[in-house]
Automatic annotation (TrEMBL):
Name of the protein in its database record: GntP family permease
Source species of the chain: Salicibibacter cibi
InterPro entries named among the record's database cross-references: Glcn_transporter (IPR003474)
Transmembrane segments: 105-125, 137-154, 174-195, 250-266, 405-428
GO function term, MF aspect, one: gluconate transmembrane transporter activity
Length: 429
């Protein structure tokens, strides 16, 4: 148990300091292996790499197609058109609302959360400037719209954090819709209320907009005029409808969005290969980062102390949904990855929770939704890759912006699990 704790703490500290999880994960896994009595070489070549490869094999197509889809939406100007359309309707003075909704629409449409930050940032910058809002609120606004309700709560979202439980519980992306909508509404209302309160507080104190360093400006890669809003939204609708209504696999859904994007913007065909290459290349780093986290978790699973840790989690008082929420949160926090932590939790404990579902008469859909919701809590600790990306894109630091990020993407998502569990306790899914 001490070795597991030491490995987790070291992983978080080193990741927070900017060290790549690709190489620190096996080092931290080695510490867990040695203190747990495992052979170091075997723990790396077989246990660690086994977990790494299994996750990559299962999920690389989704990572790759999602990244390609997002890059094409960015290159063709469709992402820009959607965000601009929303912002134009709301008005520049409603900067926080406009940026949040723009991020949420793109995330719910299947665009990678990493791509969303780059796509919306130029518009967020213009809106914050027009509204004269301090830029230190921008990272929290982007995180709120991208990493919370649209990623894990809204039924049918094609984000991987909502898809991983389907393999273990035999569910669909639209599992437990009432629980998801309730938790999503909780996150949306409380998160927006907090950001507006913070806006009023810091502007009353005299803080205003300041220009970002030139090096943090995001290059505009859109060639030519972007498509109209109603045309731009079609690929997103196609992904969501194909996945949830037609019940096709997520790979087919993403491919349908990609093909429609290409057809609607065929006049920009000269840049398609470059955009698709960039998306595919970016997906490799994303899947390797997540697989590295899963590999670490696989080693943790194989040391004797994990049985004690599992017992502690499984014996959390109350419904087994509560212990699952704890497990997903703790592991997501340890790895700094919602998908990585969720993958570990599902691989290690899903069979136990499926048995609990039968014993307690709880629908597996409830376990799916709680697992997905819980993965979006402690995952957003300072070493989370998406948080680091948002801070880099906006040119802000942890010191300037992380407190607000923590409220909207750590504390509020954790609290959102409570009403979802209450609904499940009454058989409302």
């Amino acid at each position: 148990m001490l070795g597991i704790l030491l490995g987790l703490i070291l992983l978080m500290i080193l990741a927070y300091r900017g060290w790549s999880i690709i190489w620190i994960a096996p080092i931290c896994a080695g510490i867990v292996a040695i203190t747990g009595g495992l052979d170091l070489l075997d723990a790396y070549t077989n246990t660690y790499m086994g977990g790494f490869v299994d996750f990559a094999k299962e999920w690389f197509p989704v990572f790759m197609l999602g990244a390609v889809f997002g890059k094409l939406m960015e290159y063709t100007g469709m992402a820009n058109s959607i965000a601009t359309g929303i912002i134009n309707v709301l008005g520049a003075k409603r900067a926080i609302l406009g940026v949040s909704i723009s991020c949420a629409v793109l995330a719910y449409g299947g665009i990678s959360v990493f791509v969303v930050a780059f796509a919306v940032y130029p518009l967020a910058l213009a809106m914050f400037k027009e509204a004269n809002l301090p830029r230190r609120l921008m990272p929290a606004t982007l995180a709120f719209g991208t990493l919370t309700f649209a990623m894990v709560a809204l039924p049918g979202t094609p984000q991987i954090q909502n898809l991983i439980p389907t393999d273990y519980y035999g569910t669909t992306a639209a599992a437990a819709p009432i629980m998801g909508l309730t938790a999503g509404a909780f996150m949306a209302i409380t998160g927006y209320t907090y950001l507006k309160w913070r806006e009023k507080k810091i502007t009353t104190a005299g803080e205003t907009y300041t220009e970002p360093p030139q090096t943090n400006e995001v290059e505009n890669t859109i060639k030519g005029a972007p498509p109209p809003f109603l045309v731009s939204i079609l690929p997103l609708f196609t992904v969501v409808i194909t996945l949830n209504i037609l019940q096709f696999d997520i790979i087919v859904a993403l491919l349908s969005g990609i093909v429609l994007n290409l057809l609607l913007c065929i006049q920009k065909y000269r840049g398609f290969i470059t955009a698709m290459n960039e998306g595919a290349s970016g997906s490799v780093l994303a899947i390797i980062n997540t697989s590295a986290a899963v590999g670490f978790g696989t080693v943790v699973q194989n040391v004797p102390g994990f049985a004690q840790l599992s017992d502690l989690i499984l014996n959390v008082p109350g419904s087994p949904l509560v212990s699952q929420a704890v497990a997903a949160n703790v592991l997501a926090g340890a790895t700094g990855s919602a998908s990585g932590g969720l993958g570990i939790a599902m691989e290690a404990l899903s069979d136990t929770y499926m048995s609990a579902a039968q014993t307690f008469g709880i629908d597996p859909e409830a376990f799916h939704r709680i697992a997905s919701l819980a993965s979006a809590g402690l995952d957003s600790l300072p070493h989370n890759g998406a948080i680091l990306t948002i801070l880099i894109v906006t040119g802000m630091s942890h010191k300037e912006s992380y407190k607000d990020i923590a409220v909207v993407s750590v504390i509020i998502p954790i609290l959102s699990v409570i009403p979802a569990i209450i609904l499940a306790s009454f058989g409302i899914y």
